[in-house]
């Protein structure tokens, strides 16, 4: 269940592993794997409300932080009408890298993610992680990924990174943001509409996107665009540095 998270380990200077707990996994198996791990930080995701293993870990003295609840929204692309891309929405190029960097840095500086729930993770490195994540889909080796931007006043005002899974006929928006300087202009709605239209035209069947439960503003945008709530996961941090002797 646990696998090395090389980017997190490099960023924070500690060994970090991640794991997803499939529904129905025996509690003993989860406890045994956590106990056997030598990682400083273990990040676990479980179906929201499925906390039996987490409670047992806490009873055994493990310092477990409930770091966030992640909600997934989705939409059936086959029912959308075919329309042209909204004005200002286009695929990003390498020339947009600096603008995407600036947008991510400004947008996520105070954002409450699961990393922010851990008091031992430096805030500047958390933001650096979002910047790295935002630019990662511009890398040429990511053939199954891409980045979209929306422009205003001849500037890149927002971006959305996407992972494409043609075998599942699914596109996932992995990370998205609009620069605070361009907020409240409807630009995020434009960007989302453009992405929906593009992949509907390419005959993808569904689009999914996720955010923290408390990010209400973007969820209202998704509902207006026709997306609906599909899944929810709880994220937990088990940080050995918080454990009592």
TrEMBL record:
Gene3D superfamilies: 3.40.630.30. Its EC number is 2.3.1.-. It comes from the Bacteria. PROSITE patterns: GNAT. Keywords: Acyltransferase, Transferase. InterPro entries: Acyl_CoA_acyltransferase, GNAT_dom. One of its GO terms (molecular function) is acyltransferase activity. Pfam families: Acetyltransf_1 (PF00583). The keyword Magnesium does not apply. Residues 87-245 form the N-acetyltransferase domain. This is GNAT family N-acetyltransferase. It comes from Rhodanobacter geophilus. The lineage of its organism: Bacteria, Pseudomonadati, Pseudomonadota, Gammaproteobacteria, Lysobacterales.
